[in-house]
Task: structure prediction
Amino acid sequence: MTGQLVRLAETDRAPVAFRLDGRDMTGLQGDTVLTAILTGADSLRPAEFGPERRAGFCLMGACQDCWIWAEDGVRLRACSTPLAPGMRLLSEAPDGWPA
Amino acid sequence: MTRVLVVGAGPAGIRAAERLVRAGLRPIVVDEGARAGGQIYRRPPEGFSRPPEKLYGSEAGKARALHAVFDAMVASGQVDHRPQASVHAIRDGVAHVGAQRIAHDRLILATGATDRLVPVEGWQRAGVFTLGAAQIALKAQGVAIGRRIVLAGSGPLLTLVATQLLAAGAGVAAVLDTATLAQQAGGGGGMALARPAVTARGLAMRARLGRLYHAGVRLDRIAEDAVHWRDAKGQAQVTPCDAVALGWHLRAETQLADLAGARFAWSDTWAQWLPVADPMGRAGPGLYLAGDGLRILGADSAETAGALAANACLNDLGTATPDTPRLLRRARRMHRFAAAMAQAFPWPGVPLDALPDTAVLCRCEGITVGQMRAAADHGGAEANRVKSLGRIGMGRCQGRYCQLAAADLIARHAGLAPQAVGRLRGQPPARPVPIDALLED
Result:
């Protein structure tokens, strides 16, 4: 899958491994979670109220479009959360979360 | 010591904190960024290597100076810096920051602005961002929002972001300005009179865009892989793309000012509700506002406004500030420039009543223009009633990206002026917070 975002600069940073929906992915040190996901995928999550998918909108913590989940049930705002090694992320709520 | 809380560490918040420190105070500065600078002078994380000249262009010197002033105050312990923290409520002299409570005697709000958006059919799709987002992605992360990018909307950011993306090697497919050349010429004279160098720089940037730039455009819809639009002659055009950035100038971020008790008035110049303050930024007892969160005047003006707000605070504490008249003169010139700019790039540019009922108005919850019109028919043409009945402004962005367009749509639907529709009351939490942050012991 090609990513929505394209790296133009600062590409010599150290790689950081993480998982999204059980799939191994790699970002770079200093990436936000949003950058790390969207340089390898074309969206972050399905929309709750429509058929489309979502990939963030404002990237400055104002629109709240980019909230995803960690496997342990914590929610995180992808545009303002730094990527950390070994993160286990989900694009939808983990099993058992009340709908 | 008097407890002063500054919210926001962009140009206004940094200059305000600097003044307070010079007067012997030790302000608390709460900021959502990891590193001070605000959105305009936003810094990449540690470990990135592009110099300020690359990130901020002609404004690199200003960015360097602001970052240095703030970092020095933090290093010497002169400010209590709380980075990556959001104020989600303010009540009775206490700011709620997650589970923390920050009591304060005086409050300086320098909360900045967001992009102002006009809904376009299809704007809820993945790959559609704000112009500000396109700039943040480039500056703070070194990424372009796509391979073939359409930039659309109006205002100074449209040209600036396009220029920055091209300089960084990004693929820009088109720059679609909804302002006509006649509108831009009408405001351009006033801009040039107030700030000739800045105006000339903007014109030079525009010239470099060449054939990518189109004025007087109407946006029809954003499809999966293209933007459908009409040129100034009304001819239908289709530009293939994999990313879109939208923005119509800026919307003042005023929710905290509202919660802190500021009064609001409709501004014809900026076509939005703005807090009422005196020329130094006093907006209530112990409440001071500065920067784009008070008036959309831009970064240079925000530095001046931050200094003025701190001076007002110090004056109210009995400390004289001899440079206030000089700062006020500078603020007036900035105001003339920005007012002319608002005339050059009007919002929403085209009548919103052309929007079809099927277009999504609220991106948070997928509420359409048709559902909003039905709510207004049912409950009356008042913003807060339409919110209660139709959930416009009740989603997780708290109305930041739909309320101005909604007010305009409601007004046109009912044959009223936008200000007659009223203003959405700010409600805490101003940012999402975990439930446990709201629990009191």
Observations:
- Residues 311 and 383 of chain B are 36 Å apart (CA to CA).
- The two ends of chain B are 28 Å apart (CA to CA).
